[in-house]
Amino acid sequence: MAIVTRGFRGRRDASAERLPPGQYQTRDFPVLSAGPTPRIALDEWRFTITDEPGSPVRSWTWSQLLELPVEQPVVDIHCVTKWSKFGTRWEGVSLDTLFASVETSAGYALVHSYGGYTTNLPLADLLGGKAWIVYRYDGGDLSPEHGGPARLLVPHLYFWKSAKWVNGITLRREDQPGFWESLGYNNHGDPWREQRYTGD
Amino acid sequence: MAGRLRWQTGRVVAIREETPSSKTILFDVPGWPGHLAGQHVDLRLTAEDGYSAERSYSIAGPVDGERVELTVQRVPNGEVSTYLVDDLRVGDELELRGPIGGWFVWRVEELLPVLLVAGGSGVVPLMAMVRERARTGGVAPFTFVYSARSAAEVYYADELAGRARDDDGLTVSLVYTRSAPAGSHRPAGRIGQSDPDDLGWKPGAEGRVYVCGPTGFVEAVVGMMLDRGHDPSTIRTERFGPTGG
Question: Nearest chain A Cα to B53, which residue?
């Protein structure tokens, strides 16, 4: 039973049913990252899917990525630091498209980024219309501080899973914790179950 | 796998005005497990009808038994920060969960020089590192560059001046962006705007850099450091925006 804080009334949000527990709505787009924003040249940009033995299965250059079918997800996003943002508009490529020609029996994915960031997910959380590599936000190119040139978008999980500056996925038979998942944050990160921290 | 972080009751034991728009709040939290300098805590405030709101705040002080010290900046129209700064009184209770975050932290075992760069209320977790170094007798040299709009908006001003005076291993440099008081070592302006040596930290220097502040501040400071050839792997950042608060 929560204790009542004397004199606190709070502000009810009219769209509270769209908010997972413990979240509040913001209309800004806050930036969070653990280190410098990496500087990435588009002519050197690659996105690579690697199978567990370490051999690249598929790799795309920037121009090859742009040639793939474009989707325009409009989604609510939820950051573990408590803010949620409704109706964010993105453009990019479905992970289903990227994985269409990849045969694997792996159950897990470790996502890698320029700058060294990693995050882990069950492969099932990336497939079935649930995840994209996005390169445009709200009608413009995705800015570097928001993860440009391209980031992962997995809106049904807390936003740290939507790795900025993404450059590859390693398929794994066994789950391996990523960066924040090794530093006290939840391994799965479902906002509707408030899986913020280890053990939630 | 560690156990779940549980909600604990915190009782306010002291409140101190830091600046006209910020207060330092000291909580007594029975059973608090301790924390590292730089970590943060989640607060949960619950209204009489059961409505609750959660926010994260950086811890301002080093580990101190069951005491947890926060400094909260009032965010205009902020649902939680306006209550904490304007309405909270000694004796009030709310819930805390933590400590949280294992990256933007400093430990006394780390002996390399440290550069701390704070923008505005981003000073809070960096002050926890300065205080932790003093508490533990840490030998790592600290350079602390703190950017604030004016002298009136500097947190912990007297304490910082005292620590810098009494400790040869700590250099504190205040950078005023809007108005500099008489006798300042530099005119008002952003870090690096007129003097690339504002940070007093050379590319190739061994050590670790912690930058904390609003996104624009962090991007500008870190961008300047990368332009000058600093190794990105030595730089840790924490950003916040005045969003909802």
Answer: A22
> Chain A interface, mutation test: which of B11, B15, B39, B45, most A Cβ atoms within 10 Å?
B45
**Could you say which DSSP state residue A80 is in?**
T
- Local confidence pLDDT in tens for the 200 residues of chain A: 579 999 999 887 777 889 999 999 988 777 777 888 899 999 999 999 998 777 889 999 999 999 999 999 999 999 999 999 999 999 999 999 999 989 899 999 999 999 999 999 999 999 999 999 999 999 999 999 899 999 999 999 999 999 999 999 999 999 999 999 999 999 999 999 999 999 99
Flag if B53 and A26 touch (Cβ within 8 Å): no
Is B167 contained in some domain? Answer: yes
B169 plus B92 within the same structural domain: no
Q: How many residues does chain B have?
A: 245
Nearest CA in chain A to B90: A6
A 87-146 residues inside an 8 A Cβ radius of B: 115-116, 145
The residue out of B75, B100, B125 marking a domain boundary is B100
Q: Print the domain residue range for B62.
A: 8-100
Name the domain count of chain B: 2
- What is the predicted ipTM? 0.88
| Residues B47/A8, Cβ–Cβ less than 8 Å | yes
Phi, psi for B160 (deg, rounded to 5): -65, -45
In a domain, B245, yes or no: no
CB contact under 8 A, B215 and A145: yes
A15: exposed, middle or buried (Cβ count in 10 Å: 0-12, 13-18, 19+): exposed
